[in-house]
Specification:
six-stranded mixed β-sheet; eight-stranded antiparallel β-sheet; Elongation Factor Tu (Ef-tu), domain 3; Rossmann fold; globular; 20% helix; alpha+beta
């Protein structure tokens, strides 16, 4: 989706160069560009904000100004805008794909968009602003490196701002960008921006936000989205795209606690690999190295890593989010759902688990109800032992009286699983600290949980 003019490796035929030489150079550069694209760092971010704060327009502007829209998409966008009676291109239509979304001018479902610049690849999750779609925001933000919270410059910090910021904090999203949008409607007034910034900073003292940025912008006109605004020369910090391209995300992954949930046991049983036994999965956190002493859970047996590889490529070490195959020096009974960890760094191993849950289903959470649990690659069953309290997301108050947990509610609960889980607190490790609850009868995911430490 990167347009040719954005690629630093594009070559033009120069005078005096034969066609054969030019075609060889072009082939070599094409191979280089493909490798460079694959090696680019990936940043996932989500957008949140109240209705009509301009989330979809912002994403459309980001894609449009970064030249990440194909011509046929642009033609379809122009046609759709004309049919709606708009004088200009409606960029929000790029992400609002559902018919109801276009008719009402709102976002209902999570929409994902992919684009890249010469510096980084991106996955965007455009999430709804309505209270009744809180579960959609949780879904879109659960894997995000960064969250963009939009605030309408005319309205300032409102209830939905509190709600979305709290959820971003609860999900431990490492980076938060507060975009104060529609500055064109307040005449690009600096005092308005500073007032909203001060109000937000006062509010977020109660939240756990590690990395916070502010950007005044007009998504409709493109001010400070990709290009620097000439209307706000008083703002000297980075534009939104500059922030997204340069934000340091190396420390977003947990590189301290080695965790490797086994997804599949590889047994080719062929003449070439007659005795081969490998363990395939994705590194959840930490580093694994050849020759490292490890422990296999739940057997609590020790061994050493012989090889780490992917197909025919062998690695000296593996780190998240690499998907690899490991072979061990000893024959140990290992199956899907087991976990390979460092000998001197074990996760918590127990059945009684305390967690915050975001309820995703129309059917309320049942006290003493039985559910299936999916945690990393491990599948077990559980019972809801207790509902401690429900959170009022707007005020962050804990309600100990109302134990009726319905769709979009967030609550603290206690569960007991039929088999032990191997986990860390969500605050420490988002990969091994999260789980989902599944209705056994319908096989529908009904809850997203964050394990407390």
């Amino acid at each position: 989706m990167i347009e040719d003019q954005k690629l630093p490796w594009k070559t033009e035929k120069k005078k005096g160069i034969s066609n054969q030489t030019y075609l060889k150079e072009k082939k070599d550069m094409s191979e280089f560009s493909s490798k460079a694209y694959l090696d680019m760092q990936l940043l996932r971010f989500t957008t949140a904000g109240s209705v009509d704060d301009g989330k979809s327009t912002l994403i459309g502007r980001l894609l449009f100004d970064s030249k990440s829209i194909f011509q046929d998409q642009l033609d379809a966008l122009e046609l759709a805008s004309v049919m709606r009676g708009n004088e200009n291109i409606d960029l929000s239509l790029l992400t609002d794909g559902l018919r109801a979304e276009r008719e009402q001018g709102i976002t209902i479902d999570v929409a994902y968009r992919y684009f890249a610049t010469p510096k980084r690849k991106f996955i965007i999750a455009d999430t709804p602003g309505h209270i009744q779609y809180t579960r959609n925001m949780v879904t879109g933000a659960s894997t995000a490196n960064a969250a963009i919270i939009l605030i309408d410059a005319r309205n300032g910090v409102i209830e939905q701002t509190y709600r979305h910021s709290y959820i971003a904090s609860l999900l431990q999203i490492p980076h938060l960008i507060v975009c104060i949008n529609k500055m064109d409607l307040v005449n690009y007034n600096q005092a308005t921006y500073e007032k909203i910034k001060a109000d937000y900073l006062e509010f977020c003292k109660k939240l756990e936000i590690r990395d916070l940025y502010f950007v005044p912008m007009s998504a409709l006109n493109g001010d400070n989205v990709v290009d620097r605004s000439t209307n706000m020369d008083w703002f000297e910090d980075k534009t939104l795209l500059e922030l997204l391209e340069t934000m340091s995300i190396e420390k977003d992954e947990n590189l301290i606690d080695p965790r490797f949930p086994v997804q599949y046991v590889v047994r080719p049983q062929s003449d070439k690999f007659h005795d081969y036994r490998g363990y395939a999965g994705r590194v959840a956190s930490g580093f694994f190295k050849q020759g490292q002493e490890v422990m296999v859970l739940p057997a609590m047996l020790k061994s050493k890593i012989e090889k780490i590889h992917s197909f025919e490529t062998e690695f000296s070490e593996a780190m998240p989010p690499m998907s690899v195959n490991m072979t061990l020096a000893d024959d140990i009974d290992i199956s899907r759902g087991d976990m390979i960890v460092a000998v001197d760094n074990l996760p918590v191993i127990q059945q009684d688990i305390e967690l915050m849950i975001c309820w995703l289903n129309e059917k309320p959470l049942q006290l003493n109800g039985k559910y299936s649990v999916k945690h990393t690659s491990r599948d077990v069953k559980c019972i809801i032992k207790s509902i401690d309290f429900k959170i009022d997301v707007n005020t962050q108050q804990q309600d100990y009286e109302d134990k009726n947990i319905r769709m979009n509610d967030i609550a603290k609960i206690q569960i007991k699983t039929t088999k032990p889980l191997f986990f860390d607190s969500y605050k420490k490790n988002r990969q091994t600290g999260s789980l989902i609850l599944i209705d056994e009868a319908t096989n529908v995911t009904v809850g997203a949980g964050m394990i407390l430490g």
